[in-house]
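Quick one - inputs below.
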Amino acid sequence: MQIIRQTRAAPPSAVGSAAEQPLSQWKKMSPVSVSTNRDIPGPQEPEEKTYHPSNGLFTDAHVPDFDAYLALYKKSTEEPEEFWADVAQEFYWKKPPSGPMLQYNFDVNKGNIYIKFMEGAKTNICYNVLDRNVHERNLGEKVAYYWEGNSPDHHQNITYNQLLRSVCRCANALKLLGVKKGDRVAIYLPMIPELVYTMLACARIGAVHSIVFAGFSSESLCERIMDAQCNILVTADGVYRGDKLINLKKIASEALERCKERYVPVCCSLLSEEPLFTSSSHPKCKILLYPALKLMTILLFLLCVCVCVCVCVRALQTPWDESCDIWWDDLMDGVSDECEPEWMDSEDPLFILYTSGSTGKPKGVLHTVTGYMLYTSLTFKYVFDYHHDDVYWCTADIGWITGHSYITYGPLANGATSVLFEGVPVYPHVARTHTHTHTHTHTHTHSCLRVLGTVGEPINPEAWLWYYEVVGQQRCLVIDTFWQTETGGHVLTPLPAATPLKPGSATCPFFGVQPAVLNEHGEELEGEAEGYLVFRKPWPGIMRGVYGNQERFESTYFRKFPGFYVTGDGCRRDKDGYYWITGRIDDMLNVSGHLLSTAEVEAALTEHPSVAEAAVVSRPHAVKGECLYCFVTLKDHKEFNRTLMEELKRKGQREKIGPIATPDFIQNAPGLPKTRSGKIMRRVLRQIARNEKDLGDLSTLADPKVVEVLFSQRCEAAA
Ligand code: 6R9
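Output:
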């Protein structure tokens, strides 16, 4: 996925070639000291070529150079109270903080894990991202979103004034339905403005939103609704993804059926206590609007999802249950567009977002109001070097954390103008994304682009260079941001004008973030090292828990190395203190006792001129324990043959990493199984490599057909 920052009119000085300089020309590079400690085989030293902005492109940067970054970083770690108090000044507080900025325990041996930021303060994030812009910063007429539908004929400009009114209407409608502070609201919507309205409406009234990506199956939706005990589901009748029509309401109804089946015993026991609740007295949705029946509604919410609000986008024939379904337009009809925000404590929950990890039941990652607000706002401003006239586009879906943080909260907190895109990049033609750039910047070249972002997977140097040279025309900076649903915002990231870039590295920690590298025994490695990426202290945006499951929170992130937050990712820190993510630790390859990361083997494969993309997984091996099974996608018009295989085995691996990294199997992969957020599902590839046919839920895959193709083309030798 990419995040693009573009200006409406690029200054003439913006055109020119970004310079490449040896790192030695830069002063002291890193916030960490340098020494050598490397006991795991890894790739050879990366080339010492760094990239930094061309003159004139970042004359007004918030952080103008690396020294400025270092000074701010130092302040953020050595004087965190002052640092965050300065950031907090930008925001509106109903009640200012009284106690310490940050309190936490990261050590399971010392008691429960907790993180508290600005406890005692009261605010509202919706007020801060909307009302503050309209009333205090005079941005009411500024466009918040250029919404682009799936079809290029559908578009809408939404100003901050309009957004505030729509959000208030939705907030009032939710209140009429009985939703109150602390209630969970499930949102299963495509990338339409109503998605933003609903999430902000929840935030306004203190309800906790749980957005479920609209590509998930009914089972996944049901599981998430049940886990968070949501009372309301907001969905749409349907969505076009490219030329494919998806009947969302049908999936939503199936999910609710599943919920009902599982909730029956609970319903019955409560029903018997309340004479109003006979099966025939289930409220009609319209009736819910009458306050007299509000009590009944609220009690019903305690039982299960009973109201499903449906946005009519496509006028589809949808399954309709009179007892609980209501059209969005009917609900909003006549509702006031003013709504007093609910003033929330700093640590009140803001949202739950489920993240699956590679196996197991999804975890409801919980974020709270104030820390998330400050952190997403600050990272947005600095990482994209956002300025008032910029137009910004994040291509993610709001169903993922990237969309929560960098389509909704971060940009709006900065009063930014963003593109909100419903469709897919290749519909109706491959140049669709270029059209956005032209429409919203009024220029017909890419010369207005300044910052290109990437997130979600290790980007190998080959891909980085393509992005830099072809998309960014050697002028824009490629910002490789490492972070997780759990971290709330970027944690390792370059800052455009300040950080010299190395292709493939997420570079340095953001303000307040203190990474460390540990070995298997939990010993901290200094200087150049490779191992587990952990963080020693919280920053405001870190998750506060797994919803309803403190034990899982602690065991997943804190038990392995007491005193640290464990990301689950591996990393390498180079001699300049730059961090290189090497992939999920669970995906590591253990060949004859040597640990290899997926990223290093894949980067070596993609160096071959015929290879566009590669993914490597392990397969059990009688002698070596595990061996390497590689999937390679070739560039157009390249042929997969024996010579290529030999070259990949010999040059790519033996010579690059060492003989232990020689692949046992190489399979031609016309495509790789990826989620719609762009992550390679290595779990699926492992199963293909092992010829295991029971693949579980594949509904998040962008293109499930790829799996059949890969099965049919398995390496014959790997029976
Ligand atoms: C924001 C997001 C988190 C996992 C993370 C890591 C991988 C994210 C990365 C990256 C290498 C980067 N990841 N950014 N790997 N370089 N710049 O993607 O959140 O969906 O929770 O995924 O994605 O493995 O642990 P989420």
